[in-house]
Amino acid sequence: MREVAGGCHCGAVRYRAKVESLTALKCNCSICKMKGFVHVIVAASSFELLSGANVLTSYRFNTGVADHLFCARCGVQSYYRPRSHPDSWSLNLQCLDQPDSGGFEVKPFDGENWEANVESIR
């Protein structure tokens, strides 16, 4: 396991987590594509929000399962609760303190065809 830390652009939201896999997913669904979100899935028990709970705002759409959390100050989504893993957290690789030196392998995920492909990442 590797410990990572990250947060939003303004620094109000900060977290740390223990990552089991060095695989990140680049999804092409409508929202991930627009945001440029690159997923690092971690177990809920391996995630700790250090600061910023009071500045997070939520956006839900479609089934309402995914809880897209954004910093209300800077607008960055550094992590959220994904529909594919509702008992986990998805960290944005781009928001980790050292995303490039983390050794993550980024793999594509066809989220445009989510229903047909979600089992491949569970």
Concise account of the structure shown:
This protein is 8% helix and 41% strand. The protein is mostly beta strands.
Q: Would you write up a description of this structure?
A:
The protein has 122 residues and is mainly β. The protein has a single domain, classed as Metal Binding Protein, Guanine Nucleotide Exchange Factor, Chain A. Helices cover 8% and strands 41% of the residues. The chain has two helices and ten strands. The chain has helices at residues 30-35, 114-117, and strands at residues 2-7, 14-19, 23-27, 38-43, 47-51, 56-59, 67-71, 79-81, 88-92, 105-109. The chain has a seven-stranded mixed sheet with strand order 6-7-8-9-4-3-10, with no helix packed on it. It is globular, with a radius of gyration of 13 Å. The two termini are 19 Å apart.
Q: Report the portion of residues in β strands.
A: 35-45%
Structural class: mainly beta
CATH class: Mainly Beta
Largest sheet descriptor = 7 strands, mixed
- Could you estimate the helical fraction of the residues in percent? under 10%
CATH arch. level architecture? Beta Complex
What pattern of helices and strands is seen along the backbone? EEEHEEEEEEEH
Total strands: the figure is 10
Strand order of the largest sheet: 6-7-8-9-4-3-10
User: If you compute it from the alpha carbons, what radius of gyration comes out, rounded to the nearest whole angstrom?
Assistant: 13 Å
Average pLDDT, to the nearest integer? 93
